[in-house]
């Protein structure tokens, strides 16, 4: 998918398809309901995309999230049915973009499927930066939680990746509303994690929003449909409808992260279903 938004060219790049338990993806929604929109396999897993976004404006080459990368062990890859190799780098190569050309990597949050592709691992298990010339941008609250070593968060974040981001990158911490580069701003949405960010691309009166995991797909447009991983579900239920209402009223494009069929959509208000996706660009 390629979307021209004023000065921005936005391209979706595959960060690696995978499967995740349906109960994880839909939280309190019963399987008897969610199975009608996402068909589970024999292990109760549903297909999830991992759409990263490559954004270019002639001055900057920005990558939003990095997928899970190629360094996970075989058991992990089997558990999540991850794609082999390094899908993100393969996708960038198809667009003619070398890793060295990316000058800014921004993370919605630091879970494995969003940050894993930021590092590569050699045969001796030594880590190196996938994007060696890029500034790496994380929300301040997200970074504080990920690096806190709090016992209740220890399984949410990889200490190896957090340490590597600290030691190997030009790390920049940003606040709610801060402009990262001209025409790209961070928006604190919380919910999924306390410091979860969405990203707003704006140019020539147009807006495209990457909501990240506060609304990971067109299946999650209803207030109560959200991931069981959300650490602050009440925030998700408050902030997601606010974001979607702005998108509907102002005609934003929404860049879905985990939707296995829709890459980008607009959204409309709907009396029965709260919001619906329209004008979707499909994948697969």
UniProtKB/TrEMBL annotation:
Which GO molecular-function terms appear in the entry? hydrolase activity; metal ion binding
Judging by the UniProt lineage, the source's domain of life is Bacteria
Q: Which residues form the signal peptide?
A: none
EC annotation from Swiss-Prot or TrEMBL = 3.1.1.-
UniProt entry keywords in alphabetical sequence: Hydrolase, Metal-binding, Zinc
InterPro entries associated with the record: MBL_superfamily_lactonases (IPR051013), Metallo-B-lactamas (IPR001279), RibonucZ/Hydroxyglut_hydro (IPR036866)
Identify the Pfam families for this entry. Answer: Lactamase_B
Stored SUPFAM superfamilies? Metallo-hydrolase/oxidoreductase
Q: What class of enzyme is it?
A: hydrolase
Q: Which residues form the Metallo-beta-lactamase domain?
A: 49-258
User: Which protein family is it in?
Assistant: Belongs to the metallo-beta-lactamase superfamily.
Its name, as the record gives it, is Putative quorum-quenching lactonase YtnP
The organism encoding this protein is: Bythopirellula polymerisocia
